[in-house]
Amino acid sequence: MKNKRIIISGGGTGGHIFPAIAIANALKALDNSIEIQFVGAKGKMEMERVPKAGYPIEGLWISGFQRQLTTRNLMFPFKLISSWFKAFRIVRSFKPDAAVGVGGYASGPTLDVAARLGVPTLIQEQNSYAGVTNRLLANKVTKVCVAYEGLERFFPKEKIIFTGNPVRQAITKIAGKRAEAIKHFGLDEHKKTIVVVGGSLGARTINNAMEAAFDLIAKNQGVQIIWQAGKLYIDEFEQKETGQLPNVKLTKFIDKMDLAYAAADLIISRAGAATISELCLVAKPSILVPSPNVSEDHQTQNAMALVNKNAAVMVKDSEAVTTMFQTALDLLDNENQLNTISKNVAALGMKNSAERIAKEVLEMI
Fold first, then answer.
1. Whole-structure pTM over 0.85, yes or no?
2. How would you classify the pairing of strands 143-146 and 57-60?
C-alpha cells in the first residue's frame, strides 16, 4: 500500500505559514509515512520557513492584485497563468491524495487545479472575515475549516467545520517556563514585562507608538519590554534612543515566541488570526491594535471577537501613537482587570486545532 501524499499550499505571512506547518506536523504525528509537499509563492517567507521546518516546497510566480492603480497589475494575468500551469505540473507529478489550502496567493491556483483534477480538497480560513482566495475557492473545495462563527455568509454551510486555528506547537507548552524565559531574554524577574509584536515584518504604527512613548518608557524603569520591531524596521529603530533604553530588548524577530509569552504580563500586538488564537491558548491579557491595511478591515473584526467578551483591550490604529503605551501602563497597574481578561481569553481557547484539521484531511482520503 502506497504512502498517502498531501499537498499544503499558501503563505505570504506568518499567519498563514505557521498554521500550515502545524497541520503538516499534525498529519505526520497521525501517520509518519505521509509524504507532504508544500507549494508557496516565490520570494515570500514560506520559501524560507517551510524548509527550516523540514518540508520540501515549490514556489509559484504569483502575487496579489494591487487595489490602487500600479504598473505591477499589468503582470498579474501573466503571473496567474504561469502559476496555474506550474501548479498543474506539480499536482500531476506529485499525485496527491488530498490538497490543503491555508490562504495566501499560492493556494488559489494550487487548490483550483487539485479540485479540477478530482483531488479531495480542504481550505482553512483563519479570520472572522474570509480572505479573497478562500472565498473564490469556496464552491470548489470539499471542506472548509473555520475558527470563527458566522462564516456561512462566505462558505456553503454544509462544508463548514469548526476547528479553530492551528498554532505553533511550542506555544501550547509555556507553563512553568517563566524562569527560563527571563534568563533567555536577559530580563529582571522582579519587573513586569510587556511584549510588543507587530508581525514578522513589523508594524509601522506600533513602532511609531513605541518611539512616541520614549519619555514614558524611560520614566517607568520598573517595566521591561521585549520589542519585536520587525524585519522592515529593525535598522531604523536600532539607531534611535527608544531601542537603546536599558529596559527595552529590541529585536528583529522573536524565534522563541513560547518564551516571550511565558515572560509576558501583557502583550501589545496586531490582531491577525494566528495571534488571536495564540493569545487565547496562552491566556495572556493583550492590547490589540488592528491593522487598517487589510482586506475588509478583518483585523478589527478579529479583535472585537475578544473585546466583546472582555477578553482583550483594543486601541485603534489611528490613536495608537498617542494612547497605546499609556493604556498598557494603566492596564498593568490594574491587577483585577488583568486577571479578568486572562480568565476570559482562556475560555475562548480551542486546543488541538491542527490535529482536528489533520483528521478531517485523512477522513476525506
1. no
2. unpaired
